[in-house]
Amino acid sequence: MTIPVASLYRVSTAKQLKSNEEDSIPLQANVIREFVAQHPEWELVKEYAEEGVSAFKYSKDDRDILQNVLADALMGKFKILLVFKADRLSRKSLEYPIVLWQLHRAGVEVIAVADVPGGKKLELKDQYDKLLRFIEGWQSETESVNTRIRVSHVMRQKAKQGCWTGGRPAYGFRLSGSKKGLPLEVDEEEAAIIKEMCRLYLEEGLGSKRIAAALNEQGYRTREGRLWTDTRVRQVLQNPIICGLPAYDRTKPGNTPTSRVRIKGYADLNNFIVPRDQNGNPKPVPEYSIIPLETWQRLIRKMQENCTSKIQKGETLNPRAMSSSALLTGFLVCGYCGRGFISSGQNWRKRNGKIYPCQKRVYRCVTHARVGGGEKLCAGQGSYSQKKIDRIFLQELENFLSGLNCEDLLQYIEQKQVDYLAEATNRLKTLEKELSKNRKIYNAWVKRLDDYFANPDGSLYSEQLLAEKVNEYGRILESLEKELEEVKSQARVEKHRRSQLMEFSMRAPQWFRLFMEAPVETKKQMLVQIISKVVLYRDKIEIHYNVDLAEFLGREEKLEQERFELKVLATF
């Protein structure tokens, strides 16, 4: 009677898929098939292959092929599972024995073919076996961690030398066809578009949205053949590689094993690794320089100034959105794809010259309106009646502002403050203890230094050591005192907001009356003071209030964080 056998092959990277790579899938398959051939009573009935799947990054539950193996094991499709090495199952110390236990519970014997001559049975018969399996998983995980550290170190060293560290070439560049020299070369067509972007931004004074529109009107498209957007324009211009500085560590791990997100301050050269000279100044790679470093730095400064200017003015809408006749253009966001809405529907003029207003204006999702096949990318409606959405929004706005109860509002804020104040109180006590303890240590070292100057020969410590200790604890005290003052300042701000909120609740109904009497453009300027966005779904809207109390109440002087945030849900 033959025994059904299955095999599981796995490699972590696409490079290992090649047959000439060590531990490649073809190599694993050859070794395991030869191993099966040595056992006449065995029959290889199933082969599973995980191509480019890291058993360190991904958990067992996220590995579809491994889940298929476990499911088939429970169905009795095989009695023996062969793996090339034990770490093919998992490289996580806690998951490795669990996977083995699941297989053994299904009546499957697991053998690592290449770990020892003749194969190694991965058993869980007793406590000793279980301990060995845990140690194997721990060793595999440790090896993966150390490999990641080594690779990260190598990448950092390469980045410091101006070498490209891999990945998809940035816009403006392509892989070099030459085996000698640098791995990347400038793509002249894309580089010309980058130079045009810089000219429009610095010389013409256009913003990223208007630059995207200008590029689209001239027939330019992204590398993927899509329309340019303001976000894509900024991504291209903010990448320092366009001025000859390949950057490393501008991103950090995202919410999934393979995703990356930008770090805070991703346009500041001090926050990541770029090639530098002996004095620590950025040193561009000439072959990669599409624009001069000075031009790129001027570009970044202007972007930051524009952003700061908008924040200081309380503006969150671009000029086009502010001038639109649709009330919520610039505030409205699709709850399904996250993009904004545009207003559609034009007035029409009769032959006698009389203008008739359009009665069927709609808000159109940008994904549906401007992206080919947008209905496949966004699960929401393509358009919504402008009249209906405005009516619902205004009703909810009136209910919120006119129905504000000072006590309810304060209760809401106090609920948000109670955790903070409790945490702040505990933090204050901890800081004061730390400050007191380190102040005693600091004073003790100062006294030892004074004793040294009085009698150098009788001191147990050298002058250098004493000076270093005094400076060290002096810096610790300075840091603790600064943090203590910041916590106290934040507590004062939280208390100040109570009186501001009381005044806000009394003025809100009058504010709404003035709002309704104002023209659309003025309405938008007023909404900027209290609304951050309005998220639109098929059957509901979410109004995100973000009230700048000082702006709303007309205060010239502002305290930090003098805002309160609130999300209100309204169903159709």
Automatic annotation (TrEMBL):
InterPro entries named among the record's database cross-references: DNA_bind_recomb_sf, DNA_bind_recombinase_dom, Resolv_N, Resolvase-like_N_sf, SSR_resolvase, Zn_ribbon_recom_dom
Protein name, as recorded: Recombinase domain-containing protein
Pfam family membership, one: Zn_ribbon_recom
Keywords of this entry: Coiled coil
Molecular function GO labels: DNA binding; DNA strand exchange activity
Domain of life: Bacteria
Ranges in coiled-coil conformation: 421-497
Source taxonomy: Bacteria, Bacillati, Bacillota, Clostridia, Eubacteriales
Segments forming domain Recombinase: 170-309
